[in-house]
Amino acid sequence: MTWFKRDRKKIETTEKKEIPGDLWQKCPSCGDILYRKELAQRAWICSKCGHHFRVAADDYLEILLDAGSFEEFDAELESVDALEFVDTRPYRERLDQYRERTGRNDAVLCGIGSVDGVEVSIAVMDFNFMGGSMGSVVGEKVARAIERALSREIPLVVVSASGGARMQEGVLSLMQMAKTSTLLSALDRQGLPFVAVNTDPTTGGVTASYAMLGDVIYAEPRAQIGFAGPRVIKQTIGQDLPDEFQTAEFVLEHGFVDAVVPRMRLKRVVSRTLRWMLGREALPEEP
Amino acid sequence: MPKGVYLDFERPIVELEEEIEDMERLADKAGMDVSAELATLQAKLARLKEEIFTHLTPIQRVQLARHPRRPYPLDFVERCFTDWLEIHGDRAYADDHAMIAGLARFDGQPVAIIGQQKGRDTKENLRRNFGMPHPEGYRKAMRLMKTAEKFGHPVIAFIDTPGAYPGIGAEERGQAEAIAHNLREMAGLRVPTLSVVTGEGASGGALGIGVTDRILILENAFYSVISPEGCAAILWKDGEKRELAARAMKITAEDLEHLGVVDEIIPEPLGGAHADYASTARAIAEAIRRHLGEISAWSVDDRIRRRREKYRTMGAWKGPEGAHPGPRDPVPAGEADRRS
Q1: Contact A173, A131 (CB under 8 A)
Q2: Is A84 on the interface with B (CB under 8 A)?
């Protein structure tokens, strides 16, 4: 027997007014409610606390490259699921789902563009596609981006955002670390610049290959940068991790990135660096 | 097989071996001739070993690769090389006992040897960190590789690690940078380089000394992007699902050969490498001799170009120009799938 009896058959509800969910955005760092349109204009940086939101690969093209200078390459490359991998779901299904969600075939966007007039071969990873994990397609596209830099004799810029190697492609994913690093050895020998930009998060196999091999390595504020996952480390050593562990600032303090650069200054810093490396005339001093 | 440590699936073999030993001892005491019975038992043992060791599942191979009595790199150094002189330290921070490095001779020729080394007992395992190197281990290995390059001698790497150590100090001292640096620098080494996966080839910690002209692997060793347990914990949210993960990731020597990742599988004696160190070491030495002979004949430029091309073709994808690799035999499922 119930304690309360509902008199009316059904509780009447009025149609909810459609409020576009993408109008406002809460800052995960300070909790401030931000207007998304304004946020996008500010390169997705919180106006109150400076928190850098994770952004998609395309956003970095706008942040780093001269307007209209980008030409994409190898967008059609896609995974063939060589292992016919199935965990709780088939890998193919997961791929389809991420393709639909992101409108891309895999977790990196590559092409040619210019940074303040300096032509570069650029690769930007997309964390929204399976956590930016590196499988055969990511490895191959980054390899081709390096080869494009080699054949055109232009600098390489790689913006990383990755949880590491893609387990669903097994040892083939691991070997992409070797593949990309091997080509970076050729780039190194040919004396061509490589600027690495590590964004939140840059971990695992990507950190242990190209993300740590830039002639200069920049990181975004507060970005997580590390090799092993914090949970694995915590489990292994059985103690809590220090505050700030694996933040860009922590990695800077320990000497493994060259500078922490706010997104607003990223283009300027990258172009000055490239100009220095290439011996081009310096840009006018910033105000 | 000495008593004490054995795997669950080795149990019937161990029990039969004990039975044979008991019979021999009793017969000896009583002065009886039991040779006929012994012969029957020996034949039964051979059949049993054959039965078990030709039907290994991927996870059983993983267990063999981690067998507490598995020969480790120093066991092979002792049996395949002469004039061993171990060197120590990365000249920057410390000496990492999880990574061995040293000068040796192979058929009289100077070679440099690097490898991850596990401990045989708890005390040694603590010192060697269970074969999980810190950044200084990778830097020590690179230091020796550069020394070998300077003097024009080949580098031989023995891979056997559960992974690079995931710890605070390792992160603070740049585990990722140390491995990345090795990958790039090994790509450009002017001297012949060869790696042998003898046990666990787990993740970037294995690859960190493994970018070489040739990659050989022992029959029951494995090479993987992550340990089966790690994969199971992440994808199945259950570390107990390691058997499924081991199968799904195609990590056995045979799978790796089909995926174009390893150049040759070195056979192990029936019963696994730990059943007979000497014959395993002979098989390894023979394979090293053959491959070293081939890659030593290449010119420096040719060697670096071939090494780059070797890794350049690894992976599988498709694009407008077709699929890579092209049509070929499908990758075999784990052996057990095929037989059952």
Answers
A1: no
A2: yes
Q: Does A215 touch chain B (CB under 8 A)?
A: no
Across the interface, whether the CB atoms of A175 and B172 are under 8 A apart is answered: no
**Residue A84 sits in the same domain as residue A126:** yes
Same domain, residue pair A99 and A159: yes
- Residues A72 and A207 placed together within one structural domain of the fold: yes
pLDDT over threshold 70, residue B240:
yes
Write the pLDDT tens digit of every residue in B154-207: 999 999 999 999 999 999 999 999 999 999 999 999 999 999 999 999 999 999
| A47, A133: one domain | no
Check A182 against B307: CB less than 8 A apart.
Answer: yes
A119 and A107 inside one domain: yes
* A143–B contact, CB cutoff 8 A: yes
Residues A117 and A30 in one domain: no
Please report the residues numbered 150 through 179 in chain A whose beta carbons come closer than 8 angstroms to any beta carbon of chain B.
165-179
Of B173, B184, B230, the CB nearest to A184: B184
Closest residue on chain A to B323 (Cα)? A80
CATH label of the domain that carries residue A245: 3.90.226.10
B139: its two tokens: 């830097």
pTM (2 d.p.): 0.93
Q: Is residue A9 part of a domain?
A: no
- Residue A6 covered by a domain: no
Number of domains, chain A: 2
Structure ipTM over 0.90, yes or no: yes
B310 and B213 Cβ atoms separated by less than 8 Å: yes
pLDDT at A87 over 70: yes
Please name the residue ranges forming H helices in chain B.
Answer: 11-30, 35-53, 58-65, 73-80, 122-128, 135-151, 168-172, 175-187, 203-207, 228-231, 242-248, 253-258, 277-296, 300-312, 335-339
- Containing structural domain, residue A43: 14-53
How confident is the model over B8-60, as pLDDT tens digits? 999 999 999 999 999 999 888 888 888 899 999 999 999 999 999 999 999 99
At B1 the pLDDT is 41
**3-class state of residue A113 by DSSP:** strand
Residue A116 and residue A36 share a domain? no
Model pLDDT, residue A236: 87
d(CA B281, CA B215): 16
